[in-house]
Each structure stands twice: as C-alpha cells, then as structure tokens.
Design brief:
The protein has helices spanning about 15-25, 45-50, 65, 80-95, 105-115, 130-145, 165-180, 185, 240-250, 260-265; strands spanning about 5-10, 30-35, 60, 75, 95-100, 120-125, 150-155, 190, 205-210, 215-225, 225-235, 260. The chain is an alpha/beta fold. The strands form two sheets. It has a seven-stranded parallel β-sheet, with helices on both faces.
Length: about 270
C-alpha cells in the first residue's frame, strides 16, 4: 500500500508542528497539506520550516477543500469551531478524520457522530498508549471499589491551554463513571469554592492546574476509609500524542465508516 497522504490541521500551532515532525519521522505516511485558520499570519509559510525541519514545499493554507483533493486523512488538534468546520469537508472527501480536539460540546460531538455513517472518525481526548491503558485500569478499579472510595481527578497543563478540565481528565472521569455504572454528567464536581458543604457521595471531582510548559499530568485518586490509591500518567513531550495520532490514522486507513477511539486502535475496547 502506498504512503497515507495526511493533512495537518492547525499546522502552525504547537501540536500541528509536532504532527508535521511525526509524519516526517515515520514510515507509511507523507504530508499532503497544512491547514491554518483564515487570516493567520502564518499562511504561506513552509510547514517543514515551522516544524524545525528542512523546507518541504507544503505551505500553510486555509483552503481545506482544495488541499484535500488528493489526501487520505486529516489530523485535527485545533479548536472546536475549526474541527466542526472540518468535519463536513473531511466526510465529503472520504478522509480519515483523527480528532484530538478538546473542549467540544455535546452538540459538537453530535455533529461529529452524524457523519460516521459514511466517514471514518477516530476521536479521543488523548492519543497516548499510557493514558488509554490508565483509563482501562481506572474503569476496573472504579468497578471494584464501592462509593466509600471517593474519586478525584487532578490534571496539570501548560499556561496556554484554553479549556478545563482537559479532554484527558474527562476521558478518565468517563472511565470511572462507566466502571461505577453512573452518568458522569450527573456526578461531576468541577468547581469548589466557598462553603460547599460536605462532599456528595458518588461524585467524581475534577481539579485543573495551569502553568509553565507542562505537557500534561493526570492522576486519579480513590480515597477510602484509612487508605488511598492514586493512578497517574505524566506526559514528557507532546510528540507522544503526535505519534499516537499518526498510529490512529494508519490504523483507520481502509476501515469501514464508523466512530472509533484510541481504545479500538490499541485493542483495549473490550476492557
């Protein structure tokens, strides 16, 4: 099979540049396009140079329709509005759409799901092998421990991250809720300030820390009577997520239409 031709959305951003490097460093894929927001000062710049590589002749453009003519997939770690704008074009062109964007609303996710009867979408709050293994373990532990063990999730990211809790924290919260057989939306405690009263039994708490250049730290604590269990993952470089997204795209190439997750990519969906 020939190399998979991939577009990087948000190619001028931190994650976009990491994705460009990951494609250059890996076998089986080539960069077919570099998408950036209309009006960006980076339009027309060489994607390779922006990523710290030799010039590759792929310049940043805001025209996804044109660049997707000869592409097989798109790696999309942008913002919700951009991702939703990309969904229809990706589906119409028959592209594998790898979505790592966080901060998506329920209606945004509904839009993404609506195209999966005719398109291949791999969506995850985190593309890391370690984080997806952590989610599987969290689900099992939450199932094993009763409500006498409170669940608290703490995440730390760099100062430039614009959404909270992180997509990964929510993914871990969903894993814990699934293990407990409850709906996360009904049991998430995302903010505590002032006189909050006692902790509500069964809640899953979230705390978000922002600062410095942290690529992403996540911990899930189970706090019970006289003992605590904490499971954690520490990301050291965002290249981790870029290589995971590339793995997802290559795995999804040729798959039937549907909505897939990194658990599917890594063979963890039955855990």
């Amino acid at each position: 099979m020939s190399d998979m031709r991939l577009i990087v959305a948000g190619a001028g951003g931190r994650m976009g540049r990491a994705l460009t490097r990951a494609i250059a460093e890996s076998k089986g894929a080539v960069l077919a396009g570099a998408l950036e927001a209309p009006g960006s000062e980076l339009l027309g710049k060489d994607a390779g140079v922006l990523a710290g590589l030799p010039a590759n002749g792929i310049t940043l453009s805001a025209d996804l329709w044109a660049m997707s003519k000869d592409a097989d997939g798109i790696l999309d770690f942008t913002v919700p509005a951009a991702t939703i704008a990309n969904v229809a074009i990706a589906a119409q062109r028959g592209l594998v759409h790898v979505v790592g964007t966080t901060g998506l609303s329920g209606s945004d996710n509904a839009v993404i799901k609506s195209v999966t009867n005719r398109a291949v979408v791999v969506q995850s709050g985190n593309m890391s092998l370690g984080v997806n293994l952590l989610a599987a373990v969290v689900k099992r532990v939450a199932k094993a421990l009763d409500e006498s063990f409170d669940i608290e999730i703490v995440e730390t990211h760099h100062r430039m991250k614009i959404d909270a809790p992180s997509g990964t924290a929510l993914m871990l919260g969903q894993a814990a809720a699934s293990g407990r057989g409850i709906a996360l939306d009904e049991h998430a405690a995302r903010g505590r300030d002032g006189i909050t009263g006692a902790r509500r039994p069964g809640d899953i708490g979230f705390a978000s820390l922002r600062g410095g250049t942290a690529a992403g730290d996540h911990s899930v604590s189970f706090l019970g009577p006289f003992e605590r269990l904490t499971l954690s993952h520490h990301a050291e470089d965002r290249m981790l997520f870029a290589h995971g997204a590339l793995k997802a795209a290559l795995w999804a190439h040729g798959k039937p239409p549907g909505l897939y997750s990194m658990a599917d990519v890594l063979g963890l969906s039955d855990i």
